[in-house]
Amino acid sequence: MTMWIDLTALPEIGHVETYRDHPFTVVEIHQHQTDSGLPLTLIEWQSECMTCGTPYGELTTLRSKPISRRCKECRKQPLPPTPAQQENRKRYAMRGRARR
Hints:
This protein is an alpha+beta fold. It contains two helices and six strands; from the N terminus they run ββββββαα.
């Protein structure tokens, strides 16, 4: 399930939003202007990587895709499979052997 960031009002600096039990703190709010001249509010979030614990920041608008819970370096590496995924892989591997 993907949870979009959908804030109805501009958060205050220090506001904490939790996504999948992972806290993100608003550290700064930037006013930006797009190339076409439209005003845009960017929210800078701070958190710690769920994999390595390194602090990192992300920028979003009031409504945007979910924030990653991993830093850019850890995002490059695939996550290890969960126990449920490992069980599914075993089950499908055995099913393929039975057909041969």
